[in-house]
Amino acid sequence: MGNKVKSMGLVGLGVVAGVALTVQVSAWAQKGEGSPLPLDELRQLADVYGLIKSDYVVPVEDKKLLSEAIGGMVASLDPHSVYLDQKAYREMRESVAGKFVGVGIEVAAEDGYVKIVSPIEDSPAYRAGIKAGDLITRIDNVPVKGLSLDDAVKKMRGKPGSKVTLTIARRGEDRPWVVPVMREEIRVLSVKAKMVEPGYAWVRISQFQEATLEELATKTAALYADNPDIKGLVLDLRNDPGGLLPGAVGVSTAFLPKEELIVSTKGQLPDSNQSYYGRREFYAPRGADPLAKLPAAVKTVPMVVLVNGGSASASEIVAGALQDYKRAIVMGSQTFGKGSVQTLRPLSADTAIKLTTARYYTPKGRPIQASGIKPDMLVDETLEGDGLNALRVREVDLQRHLTSEGDKAGDKAGAAAKEARDSAEQRQRALALLKNRQPLELGGKDDFQLAQALNHFKGLPVKLAKPEAVEAKAEAEAPPKELPGAETKPPELKGSKK
Q1: Which of 338, 386, 397, 447 is catalytic?
Q2: In the beta sheet, which residues pair with residue 336?
Q3: Is residue 377 within 8 Å of residue 464, measured between CB atoms?
Q4: For residue 138, is pLDDT > 60?
Q5: What is the per-residue pLDDT for 438?
Q6: Helices marked H in 37-169 — which ranges?
Q7: Active-site residue 252, yes or no?
Q8: Lowest mean pLDDT among 190-194, 421-425, 463-467
Q9: pLDDT at position 95, please?
Q10: Which residue in 313, 315, 371, 404 is the catalytic one?
Q11: Among residues 85, 240, 324, 397, which one is catalytic?
């Protein structure tokens, strides 16, 4: 049984939205033993190395050349494989603990620039007014064009209290604007919980960290202690970039019956083919069981899971598991589509490569990679439209993204969705809606998607996104199906209270 848990996950924040990592320290030589080395290509690499050392205009250190060669080779594979030098390796370990020094943004690359996937709540970037969809064109007046994403991230890191100046381009604005941002130690709050109305609870996970399960159990238990007759619980995973794999397994287990399959992985190596179940060995192999303090009612309370284009990686694992078992209705916008496993392969005591080694699959075998999780009920961010989600970068938008194995239909659907998002009409409509709009406070009184979740619990009509409203009308005119996908009345949930 112990062998099954040797590849529990970590998450690195910074390069792209939420990356689930699997720590497996094994010799790379176990793969491809006996495969002949490409001697001609290796000689060519050595020749290039020698030419740079002998003929380049200025001397170049051996360490720099070799590090850049390793970094370029790994980065050419996909957006999530990366070489971690000493500084990046240290920062990754810090982020796993839920803290790092920076400006507080999740980023991805787009057209040579750094695109904001999501500002972290209450971070310096968030307070400075930086929004999802913004492009960083300069860092301390140094053009970002030509820098690798990893190098751009390094430039935004630094000592607490130091200042970094970002030049921001925003669609719909005539000219870029310059904003100085003070670096801080970013401590990402993992779990928030409150009663939004009598009888209805809201639990938000902003990132899956080491303390997430303990926080979830403590805050949910406190809600039930004060409100024992909770009639509906909203699990809010919007803008959650992901995090620790054990956290995703544990959160899913909190709301599902014991022993259920939560997620599986498939890759080339035998160790990459794993199944993770709702058992303590998979989410808390050491110490006390953090889920032991949860009240039994959380297993049966009616649930809605809120997601959007910023929900990635670990949050997609949770949404997919609860959706597969019909334990919750997933509501909102299609998720990011980060469904690949990055394995940490140490190269030395303080360097490593983060290498994509497998894909994630939901309990029913649905691929998450590039496809994401499609909500049971598509609900826009606001009554007027889907706001920032219409402009969000997703996995399928990233260059060299890994496709869904054997899911050509899903890949085509993702490409079609990208084309629709990129259309001039769609962008103009989204920009018009965003102009003069204040940032949305998730869980606040003006949270439209949360209001629709509450309507769902109460059996009231849910205002669906326009494309799904058309489908709902077509379904209403068709013979009834066993599993309605776009009804405005609450579908039957496993464990729902009557």
Answers
A1: 338
A2: none
A3: yes
A4: yes
A5: 56
A6: 39-55, 62-75, 86-96, 124-127, 149-156
A7: no
A8: 421-425
A9: 64
A10: 313
A11: 324
Catalytic, 159? Answer no
Measured distance CA(284)–CA(291) in Å, rounded: 9
> What SS3 class is residue 421?
helix
Mean pLDDT, rounded, of the chain: 82
Q: What 3-state DSSP class applies to 185?
A: strand
Instruction: Report the pLDDT value the prediction gives residue 109, as an integer from 0 to 100.
Output: 75
Write out 311-340 in H/E/C secondary structure.
Answer: CCCHHHHHHHHHHHCCCCEEEECCCCCCCE
Q: Residue 397, Cβ neighbours under 10 Å: how many?
A: 21
Beta-strand relationship, 9-12 and 19-23: antiparallel
Q: Calculate mean pLDDT across residues 363-387.
A: 92
Query: Are 137 and 145 in contact, with CB atoms under 8 Å apart?
Result: yes
Q: Can 423 be counted among the known catalytic residues?
A: no
Under a CB-based contact definition with an 8 Å cutoff, are residues 18 and 11 in contact? Answer: yes
The SS3 of residue 430 is helix
Structure tokens at 227: 């409100």
Task: Give just the sign of the alpha carbon dihedral 123, 124, 126, 127.
Answer: positive
How many other C-beta atoms lie within 10 A of the C-beta of residue 129? 13
Identity of the amino acid at 200: Y
- Whether residue 451 is predicted with pLDDT greater than 60 in this model: the reply is yes
Contact (CB, 8 A) for 260 and 37: no
Contact, 276 vs 242, CB < 8 A? no
Which range among 99-103, 441-445, 490-494 has the greatest average pLDDT? 441-445
Structure tokens at 236: 């809010």
Q: How confident is the model at residue 388 (pLDDT cuts 50, 70, 90)?
A: low
CB 379 within 8 A of CB 308: no
The letter for the amino acid at 299 is K
Report the range of poorest mean pLDDT among 10-19, 70-79, 245-254.
10-19
User: Among the residues of 56-168, which ranges form H helices?
Assistant: 62-75, 86-96, 124-127, 149-156
